[in-house]
Structure to design on (553 residues):
């Protein structure tokens, strides 16, 4: 089972993330934990010792009520593997700490999709994503699809993409596609012959075949990031390596309507 | 639910009957077909016949055992006021033919108010942007002034997407259901676009509205994709999306951001430049 930590707050992004995680659990065998961090204002923080502990208990109780409300409202079917984890402090720091200590294999966080790519870049370049010990699934939408895409392009390391994403979806019942994209100004997204894909595409295919995985479709697309992002709504999730800033790869992921599974080279993670 | 359909003898009116039939079937609505004429004193027989033809056409889209409307004869037309005639039949649901004299836009808005309709539907001529024969700015004036939601249907092939744009204003279940019907009717995908502004409280309310919508559609197994855009981007976004998607604008009350952003000229521009149908939701 995939030990998974889902971060929830009381907002639309978390509502979608909860529902999507529930949906994901039909395809991937999850051992699901949920977490929430209460981030009090500095002004609210009081005292030391017993006074501070009492205050923290009060804040944590309020966080627990919030998580209970969310779980009750969303009424998910996927069982939780343990009690909700409530922390008081700074969200990114608490989550990094919990992910490392808990040896989680996957972190899930909701993200309210925006037409502006900047908030997406801010999220994936945040210390939370940078220092994370496991892949992160950025949930943007509840796509009720049975298909999962591996997003491939120039500049994507096929080995990292295949090895790391297969750790998450390799044993799932998702139908697997490879989507290779090229940037080109155009009125609409165009599907090219799979021979138009670069060497990265062929290497990705070979690695998946060597791992014994069946690819349902290999799709080579050209267009601008908005068009390709829109095309990706056909998928429940899109697996990708971490993109660089200002890269077309980043803009495609930012505009993807489907949720994005971001994996990173293990050597990079240890640095 | 009550649907008012404004009709004349042009092809843009003829082309909307099938869509009206499917919408009225999906919502089990009372339906009013409205024709407009110049004369205040004598009802036009050709207009009576035309509305009757449209009514027969709509009935033909239902299986006989599922038709919720009763049949009626043309002899039962009644004058209900000066320049105002109607005939109706009550089955499980009521179907009314009505003829009114005067300006098209004013008559449609007035009848929609009098009959407490939930939705006005009309077609428009694509050649001139979005016009009705013989009177200027009919779709725009109806979209602006009607007391209820307005759907302007353009016959432009298959629509694969409904783009539903909302601000923090309250959303009503009837309007949500109308979108649901359109999604089903066109087998289209649904995008819910929230327009954000600087006021954090309003953005929290917007999220709340989006949660309501998302739950409503998810519970009905409709895949809906959500996205937020900045208020400064909304007109460009709508213009771009309207090339291939039906645009549904949720216009709220005085506080509505969209109402402020979509001034008279913007709605006019949207109606005339959009290649697909436009839905103004209230």
């Amino acid at each position: 089972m995939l030990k998974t930590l889902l971060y929830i707050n009381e907002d639309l992004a978390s509502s979608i993330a909860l529902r999507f995680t529930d949906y994901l659990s039909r395809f991937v065998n999850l051992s699901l934990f949920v977490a929430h961090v209460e981030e009090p204002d500095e002004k609210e923080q009081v005292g030391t010792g017993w006074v501070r502990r009492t205050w923290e208990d009060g804040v944590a109780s309020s966080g627990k009520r919030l998580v209970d409300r969310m779980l009750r409202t969303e009424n998910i079917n996927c069982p939780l593997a343990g009690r909700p984890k409530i922390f008081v402090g700074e969200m990114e720091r608490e989550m990094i700490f919990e992910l490392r200590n808990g040896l989680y294999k996957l972190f899930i966080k909701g993200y309210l999709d925006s037409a502006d790519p900047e908030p997406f870049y801010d999220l994936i370049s945040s210390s939370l994503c940078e220092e994370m010990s496991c892949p992160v699934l950025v949930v943007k939408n509840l796509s009720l699809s049975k298909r999962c895409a591996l997003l491939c392009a120039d500049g994507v390391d096929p080995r990292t993409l295949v090895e790391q994403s297969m750790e998450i979806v390799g044993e799932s019942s998702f139908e697997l596609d490879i989507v290779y994209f090229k940037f080109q100004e155009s009125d609409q997204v165009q599907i090219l012959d799979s021979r138009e894909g670069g060497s990265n595409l062929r290497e990705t295919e070979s690695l998946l075949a060597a791992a014994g995985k069946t690819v349902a479709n290999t799709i080579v697309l050209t267009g601008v990031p908005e068009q390709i992002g829109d095309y990706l709504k056909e998928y429940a999730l899109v697996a990708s390596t971490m993109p660089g800033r200002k890269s077309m790869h980043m803009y495609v992921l930012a505009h993807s309507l489907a949720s994005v599974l971001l994996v990173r080279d293990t050597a990079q993670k240890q640095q | 639910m009550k649907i008012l359909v404004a009709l004349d003898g042009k092809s843009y009116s003829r082309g909307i009957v099938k869509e009206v039939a499917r919408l009225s079937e999906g919502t089990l609505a009372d339906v009013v077909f409205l024709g407009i004429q110049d004369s205040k004193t004598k009802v036009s027989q050709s207009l009576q016949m035309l509305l009757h033809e449209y009514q027969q056409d709509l009935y033909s889209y239902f299986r006989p055992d599922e038709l919720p409307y009763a049949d009626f004869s043309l002899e039962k037309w009644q004058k209900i006021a000066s320049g105002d005639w109607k005939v109706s039949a009550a089955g499980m649901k009521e179907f009314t033919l009505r003829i009114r004299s005067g300006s098209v836009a004013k008559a449609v808005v007035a009848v929609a108010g009098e009959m407490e309709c939930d939705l006005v539907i009309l077609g428009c001529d694509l050649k001139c942007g979005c016009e009705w024969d013989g009177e200027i700015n009919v779709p725009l004036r109806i979209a602006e002034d009607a007391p209820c939601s307005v759907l302007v249907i353009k016959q432009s092939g298959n629509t694969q997407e409904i783009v539903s744009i909302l601000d923090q204003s309250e959303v009503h279940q009837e309007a949500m259901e109308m979108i649901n019907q359109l999604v089903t009717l066109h087998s289209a995908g649904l995008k819910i676009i929230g327009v954000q502004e600087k006021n954090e409280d309003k953005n929290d309310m917007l999220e709340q509205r989006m949660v309501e919508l998302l739950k409503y559609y998810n519970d009905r197994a409709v895949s809906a994709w959500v996205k937020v855009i900045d208020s400064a981007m909304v007109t460009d976004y709508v213009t771009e999306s309207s090339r291939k998607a039906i645009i549904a604008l949720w216009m709220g009350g005085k506080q509505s951001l969209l109402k402020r952003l979509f001034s008279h000229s913007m709605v006019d521009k949207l109606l005339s430049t959009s290649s697909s149908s436009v839905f103004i939701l209230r």
User: Anything to note?
Assistant: The mean pLDDT of chain A is 90.
